Structures are given as C-alpha cells and as structure tokens.
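Input:
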Amino acid sequence: MQRILNALFQFRNPILYLFLLILSISFTYNRNAFHESNLDKYSFLISAKLHRIQFAISRYFNLRTVNDQLLEENEKLKFLVLQSNKLPLYPDALTKSMRFLFNAKKATVIKNSFQNQRNFIIIDQGSDNGIKPEMGVVSNNGIVGIVHSVSSNYANVISILNQDLKINVRTKNSPAFGSLVWKGGSSIEFKVEDIVSNAKIKIGDTLITGGMSSYFPLGIPIGQITHLEKKDESGYFSIEATLFTDPSQVFYTYVLENTDYEELQSLQKNLK
Amino acid sequence: MNFFSISSIVAFFLLALAQTLIFNHLSIFGFINPIIYLLFFVYYRFESNQTLFIGLAFLLGFFVDLFSHSGGAHTIATLTVGFLRPIIIRYAFGVTMDSPQSYFSDSRTINKFSFLVLIVFFHHILYFTLVYFSWDTIHLILKNTLFTSIFSLILMGIALSFYSNKK
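Output:
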C-alpha cells in the first residue's frame, strides 16, 4: 500500500497532466447536454459582457473614420440635393437641359472668425484639391461664403458674415430677387435689400439662393423672413431674415465648383 | 503568500485579460492574433512547484477559452506546454550546477531565446492543430503557426525587455 502511494506521489505530475488533459478534451469534443446548457452558457455570458465593453471603447476610437465616411457620403448626397432643388422651380429642367453645373467637394473649417465686421474662414482644401477663387462654399443647411484666395493646401473664404458680401436671393414662392447682407450684429440676423415692393412676399417665407450668380445654384435654402416693412417712398421692401444655421458654428463645408465658370466669365468680359 | 505568489496571480489575470480583450482582436494582416499569455510560463520561477504549475497552466488556458468563447484548444495547448516546461528548460538552459532559478537570472541571450522559441512554437503548433484538426488544412496550420509565432515572439520580446530594463 505504502509503495503504491509512493509511486502515485512520484508520478503525480504526469497523472495530474493526464487527468486534466482528459478533462479538457472532454470539454472540447464531448459536447453533451450538460456542457451545451451550462458551461457554454456561462462562457457566452462572460464573453458577451466583455466584448460589449470592448465594443464601446473601439467604437469611440472609430468615430473619426465613421465621420469621414459620412462626410464622403454627404458629398454625394449634397450634389443630388442641389440638383433636385432645381426641379420643382423649373418644371422642364429634366427635359430641356440634363446638365447640372455644380460639383461639390468636401472641406473642413480650420479657422472661423465671426467677431469682426469683415470675417474670413480658412478651409483645409486648396489649389491641389482643385479649389479656385470665387467658388461658392455651402454647409449642410445654408451657405457659408465665397472662396477669396487659395494656397496649395488651404483656401481663404469670405464669410457670409462680411458686410461687403451680397448674396443673390429670392423667396421660394415668388421670383422677385434681392441681396442678402449681414447686419453686423448677431451671426444669424441678416437683411434683404432691393426686393421691389409689389412682390408677393410675407413673413415666414423661405429664402433660397437666386441662381443669378455663378457662385451658387438656384434653390439652396438659406433662412426665413422674420420682419417685413413696405416703404412707399423708396419702392423697395425693408426685410429682415434669420438663417437656418449659424455660420459661426459651421465645421464641415462643401465647396461648389461651377463647371461653366470660365465660359460665363468670358461672356461677361465681352459685355464690358 | 510572498511577493512572488501575489505578483504571479496578478500577472495571471492581467495576461488572460490582455489576451482576450486586446490581442485576440489585433488581426495583423487579417489573420494573425499574437498569443502573449505565454509570458506567464516565463514569469513563473523555474524551481517553484511543478504540480501547482500544471494546475495553473490548465486554469490559464481555461480562462482564455472561457473569455474568448473558443473550444478547449487553449486549455489543451497550455496544459501540455506547462507539463513539458521542465524538459524545455533543461534543453534550453542545460543541466549544470548553476542552472538558473528563473528566466531573468540567466544572462545568456541564446538560452533565453531558445527557451522562448521552444515554448511559443510548441504551444502554437498544438493550438492551431487543435483549432483546425484536419489533415486537409495542414498548410493553414503551418502558415498560422509560423507567422503567429513570429509576432508572438516579437511582442513577448518587447514586453520582456521592459521588464528587464526596470530591474
């Protein structure tokens, strides 16, 4: 008896090893009802909990990539939105001209000033990415400005918050057009000049871009009329409007490239 | 409970968690998930109780299997390498009067390296054989063993170099 015990003690390591090996092989291959229901259940419960934590962490770090993907998708959608805005305004747009002049390119705002009377925005795309002066810049819900000058990697944009900049606008329901100018105070309060007083407009009308310039296509929604006053002596409305989005809070923008820009410029030169 | 046994327990859980939470998801080149919990085999002192060590190796593999919801491949591979460790130590460091008491007390790089390579290689070839378990996938087993071993060794080497620098 003593010798058997001694032998067992002497070979305790191989015996333990063989015992555990048989145990673990049974875990793997002897998938009977007990393991299916209990061990697997606990294992799944623990691993699911751990992976949920891990997923939450990795999702946070992936946000940047996801953001970029969304931005790219938006770039495509922006083009489609701009194109579709045109349709209800020109019912025969599809049949008469299949051409749409504007391409959208995404850009991120690096610096945005809004405290001065003449504000500028710097975006992270330049001449290397095909940005040229006098291109329009829009955000997801309104317009941002017009490109002023470009370097190879950056562009300087005249912000809509600049009293020198006048944007050609009209209301959605009436073709009468005027110019949108910043009042210089709050970043969403603007006035609209030069709309003749016989135009049929009212408070609450939506302002859209007028399409009379080469910067922006027709029909980008900009803001809403908040105050309307008819001045008989001048023959023009005095109109106040608020924007849909605050241009001082814009981060992602789209630069609009007018494919017919040079053609338009040469025509204008001939007129002079 | 001395310092060594407490630090062993901490290392045990840290390695199991690091393996399941980080290294099982690395997917270098799409298929390589380095296995670094073998550092426990390096950290555990050579002259300590071998019977206990076999039990610990079993538990380590079992924990990793449990957390990563894999079959029993980690368990069998770690258990076997744990059982064979004294032989690997004898082979890598030689049997002399001044046999090292732990991995860190030996100064010869070639011994340390052969020890690491043997442990990693044995473990990986067992692990991938058990994962695939078919002659048709022998090329997959060999490919995975080779490339995963390389990355496991690199990562373990980096971790060990930090540990030695601190000492």
